[in-house]
Task: inverse folding
């Protein structure tokens, strides 16, 4: 087993495609081969060694660590299959795309298309777990098929769009169009005030897409042991928890479990009766 | 027992007495079975006990029940997968297929039906990673009629099946391991009251021991059996050698004054667990009733031809 440590070198590159850094490929290479691995930066082929310094050590389990200024590094941990992939710093788009197993931990924010399908594939993440301590951009969990994503901060628009299965926990606020085209899977939102506000603003559309929210006791949450998941669950258990099924406009049976602030919770289901004539 | 030192304990013909109780120089003969442990949890101990009681009902002997199953131990909330009160059960069958078939049938009728309960595998850990598995939720999920939800949590798959009190949580499958069935000992007493007291004392000592169950009512059976019968359709019939009422009719192993016999049958996950249970049970029975009607302790075997596990009483009690 090996631990590979990549540190981003400073450079003028505006966009780096890091999909070539895959554990299963690294395991077959010498350090020299890794350093000469071709990558794409600003549309040009560049040796990995020019972009990152690399250190490989024997370890008890496979681990990839990447750190530095990674905001313009896209496709980190794409196709990750086993072992741990640790990202120290905020990452770019497409993190964990097409991931099939193992775990990815991001100590920072991530860009758009977290765990999206890789390339032209129709299925996104299909196994393993991703944990983001900060925020995520748009289209997080797009076409996700299996696995668990935990986002400690907020997410952008189109969260879990066309999700097929799996579980996503979000501790912070969510953007527009949550769960568009969701078929199955679970979305757990610890701070859904904006989600509810958007549904209220477009009540006709919301009625088409979501079932009426019901109070729900999710006993399965007791099975989670991951402290990052427990942190989100802990937030949710302090407030009334509701469940709606989505996306009903495409016959979806996915579930969105959400908690809202007490003020918003009081508004759910009471708006018509309390409205001024 | 197959791997114990045969020279341990008293030499052949030597008498072993515990508190005046004669320990026969014989052995219990046990055989290989397939086994699993399951955990039932519920919102409170009462529902968990109801489910466990129903699940382990009619599970005394594979001769006719096809499954030997009983409560192993109650579990504190911190010992269960979902942090609720629970009960661990051990189940044994003659084959892996039969074990799966019986567990699924019983879980579907006795646990799925019981309010607030959930069902989990009880043999988890890396040491069971390569074991074959029997389905639990793998089969029961279809009760959800398409509304069931799968969740993979920490590498384990669970099913959430919608039911009228919420959701029935059921682990997808459980490992099955090789177990041992048919460990036993016979308590021979002057009368049934003394035999009952001895049996209860033995069971009180056996119940806390992990990895072993005594599936008969109260852990005890009066209808010890021999293989075969004068009736061709029966695979087992009364153990006439230990029936006090048949002395003088068939060849008896009972001496004068030995008028009641009760048998404790044990199934265990390992030879060590059965040994520990036999040792504790016999010692407790002798301590309690040695001077109050318990005369001898023996064990049932078939000449060593049926099972490869031989639990020699003198070795166990040495």
Result:
């Amino acid at each position: 087993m090996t631990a590979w440590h990549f540190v981003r070198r400073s450079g003028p590159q505006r966009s780096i495609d890091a999909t070539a850094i895959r554990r299963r490929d690294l395991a077959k290479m010498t350090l020299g081969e890794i350093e000469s691995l071709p990558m794409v930066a600003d549309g040009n082929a560049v040796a990995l060694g020019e972009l990152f310094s690399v250190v490989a050590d024997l370890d008890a389990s496979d681990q990839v660590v990447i750190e530095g200024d990674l905001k313009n590094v896209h496709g980190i941990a794409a196709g990750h299959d086993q072992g741990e992939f640790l990202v120290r710093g905020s990452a770019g788009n497409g993190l964990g795309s097409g991931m099939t197993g193992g775990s990815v931990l991001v100590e920072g924010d991530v860009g758009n298309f977290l765990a999206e399908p890789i390339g032209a594939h129709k299925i996104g993440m299909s196994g393993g777990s991703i944990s983001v301590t900060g925020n995520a951009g748009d289209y997080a969990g797009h076409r996700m098929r299996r696995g668990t994503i935990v986002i400690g901060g907020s997410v952008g628009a189109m969260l879990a769009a066309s999700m097929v299965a799996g579980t996503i926990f979000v501790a912070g606020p969510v953007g527009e169009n949550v769960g568009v085209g969701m078929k199955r899977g679970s979305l757990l939102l610890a701070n859904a005030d904006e989600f509810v506000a958007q549904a209220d603003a477009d009540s006709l559309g919301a009625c088409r897409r979501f079932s009426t929210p019901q109070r729900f006791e999710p006993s399965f949450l007791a099975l989670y042991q991951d402290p990052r998941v427990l942190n989100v669950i802990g937030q949710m258990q302090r407030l009334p928890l509701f469940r709606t099924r989505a996306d009903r406009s495409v016959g979806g049976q996915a579930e969105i479990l959400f908690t809202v602030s007490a003020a918003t919770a009081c508004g759910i289901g009471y708006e018509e009766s309390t409205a001024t004539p | 027992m197959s791997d114990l030192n045969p020279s341990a304990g008293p030499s052949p013909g030597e008498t072993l007495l515990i508190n005046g109780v004669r320990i026969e120089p014989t052995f219990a003969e046990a055989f290989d079975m397939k086994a699993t442990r399951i955990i039932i949890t519920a919102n409170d101990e009462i529902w968990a006990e109801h489910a466990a009681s129903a699940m382990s009902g009619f599970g005394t002997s594979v001769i006719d029940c096809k499954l030997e199953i009983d409560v192993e131990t109650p579990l504190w909330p911190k010992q269960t997968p979902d942090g609720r009160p629970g009960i661990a059960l051990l189940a044994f069958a003659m084959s892996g297929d039969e074990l799966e078939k019986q567990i699924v049938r019983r879980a579907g009728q006795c646990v799925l039906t019981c309010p607030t309960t959930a069902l989990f595998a009880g043999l988890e850990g890396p040491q069971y990673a390569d074991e074959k598995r029997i389905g639990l939720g793998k089969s029961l999920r279809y009760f959800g009629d398409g509304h069931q939800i799968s969740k993979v949590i920490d590498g384990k798959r669970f099913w959430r099946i919608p039911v009228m009190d919420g959701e029935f949580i059921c682990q997808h499958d459980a490992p099955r391991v090789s177990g041992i069935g048919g460990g036993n000992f016979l308590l021979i007493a002057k009368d049934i009251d003394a035999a009952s007291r001895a049996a209860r004392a033995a069971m009180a000592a056996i119940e806390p021991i992990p990895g072993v169950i005594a599936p008969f009512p109260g852990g005890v059976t009066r209808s010890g059996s021999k293989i075969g019968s004068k009736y061709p359709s029966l695979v087992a019939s009364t153990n006439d050698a230990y029936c006090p009422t048949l002395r003088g009719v068939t060849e008896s192993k009972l001496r004068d004054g030995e008028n009641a016999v009760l048998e404790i049958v044990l199934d265990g996950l390992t030879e060590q667990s059965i040994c520990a249970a036999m040792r504790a049970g016999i010692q407790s029975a002798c301590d309690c009733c040695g001077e109050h009607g318990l005369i001898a302790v023996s064990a049932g075997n078939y000449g060593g031809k049926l099972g490869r596990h031989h639990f020699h009483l003198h070795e166990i009690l040495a």
Q: What stands out?
A: Residues 243 and 257 of chain A are 4 Å apart (CA to CA). The first strand of chain A starts at residue 2 and ends at 8. The domain at 62-272 of chain A is CATH 2.160.20 (Pectate Lyase C-like). The longest helix of chain A spans residues 227-236.
